[in-house]
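Summary of Year 1 activities. Much of the first year was spent building the evaluation harness for sequence design. The harness presents a backbone, in tokenized form, and records the residue chosen at every position. We chose the following record to illustrate the format because it has been used consistently in internal testing since the harness was completed.
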């Protein structure tokens, strides 16, 4: 299968990066094709400008956005790896979705409502959190994130979210606990693919 990893964390020393590296290695070991879009490394511009919005209304898509759309078209599975910051995805990833998952590519508005255009694409998400599991559960944060991201973005575009894996309270985890998490990440490849 073709896997596109869309990665959004600015630090190479982050646990998100360890998840991304582990997941990529496991995919390759299991004979999957992998491409990575590290949004910070490629300096992706997350800002949807007024002129770009006007161009989109005319069906004109800029070359940087079109390139990202080609990566998504290539993929059978689109994997997102990022931290949950302020109860959502990092701004660079939100901007990526706003610019790349545009009308005419990811969805259409019709007389009968919206129609997702990315049917047949699967989504697997790894999100790290700094909060404890108890805090997130008491405040319903991760359930809200799942509704907004899984349903209001990916499902809306016709994609099937096969798993949204939250790695909770990472700032409190020991080295050994982190190693166990990475082993679980490896096993997810054979579990789902």
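For this record, the design step produced the sequence shown next.
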């Amino acid at each position: 299968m073709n896997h596109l990893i869309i990665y959004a964390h600015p630090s190479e020393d982050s646990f998100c990066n360890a998840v991304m590296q582990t997941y990529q290695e496991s995919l390759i070991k299991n004979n999957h094709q992998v491409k990575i879009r590290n949004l910070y490394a490629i300096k992706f511009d997350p800002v949807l400008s007024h002129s770009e919005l006007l161009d989109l209304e005319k069906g004109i898509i800029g070359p940087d956005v079109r390139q990202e759309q080609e990566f998504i078209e290539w993929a059978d599975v689109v994997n997102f790896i990022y931290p949950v910051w302020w109860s959502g995805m990092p701004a660079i990833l939100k901007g990526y979705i706003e610019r790349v998952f545009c009308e005419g590519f990811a969805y259409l508005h019709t007389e009968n409502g919206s129609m997702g255009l990315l049917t047949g694409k699967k989504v697997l998400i790894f999100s790290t959190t700094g909060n404890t599991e108890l805090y997130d559960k008491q405040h319903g944060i991760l359930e809200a994130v799942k509704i907004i991201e899984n349903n209001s973005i990916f499902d809306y575009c016709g994609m099937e979210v096969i798993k949204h894996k939250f790695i909770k309270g990472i700032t409190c985890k020991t080295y050994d606990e982190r190693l166990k998490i990475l082993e679980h990440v490896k096993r997810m490849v054979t579990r789902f693919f």
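Helices lie at 15-29, 50-57, 63-74, 91-100, 133-139, 141-155, 175-192. Quantitative recovery figures across the full test set are reported in Table 2.
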